[in-house]
Amino acid sequence: MEGEAKKRGRHPKAAADRKSANMKFRTREDLREMLEAAAERSGFSVSEECERRLFASFTADDLRLIVQQEVFSAVRDALAVALAVRSDIPGERTEDEPSQRPQ
């Protein structure tokens, strides 16, 4: 073992023993500083802070999609009711009826 550099850190866990996957990515210096400051304030590690923020962004996107679908459904239903009421008003023509103009 002479001449070989000793490896630093602990031995990696077996895949079955790991709780999370390891991801590596590049980021700008200012974003790294913001993440480090946020992690310090929250009491989490930088890795945990990144994970929490990424998860929250997916949750926010899901909620936004649900709200958009609910709003679309409500508007569609309101339009259907308004069109049904309008077709019940005497003298109002619908798209299916030809225009009756005096000649």
Key features of this structure:
103 residues, 2 helices
Helix content: 40-55%
Radius of gyration equals 31 Å
Strand content: under 5%
State the separation between the terminal residues, measured CA to CA.
108 Å
Q: Residue-averaged pLDDT, rounded?
A: 82
* SSE string: HH
**How many strand units?**
0
Uncertain runs are none
Mass-distribution shape? elongated
Please explain how this structure is put together.
The protein is mainly α and 103 residues long. It is built from 2 helices and no strands. Helix 1 packs across helix 2 (46-87). The longest helix is centred in the middle third of the chain and has 42 residues, at 46-87.
Q: What topology does this entry show?
A:
Elements: H1 29-42, H2 46-87
Write a compact overview of the structure shown.
The protein is mainly α and 103 residues long. It has a domain of 60 residues.
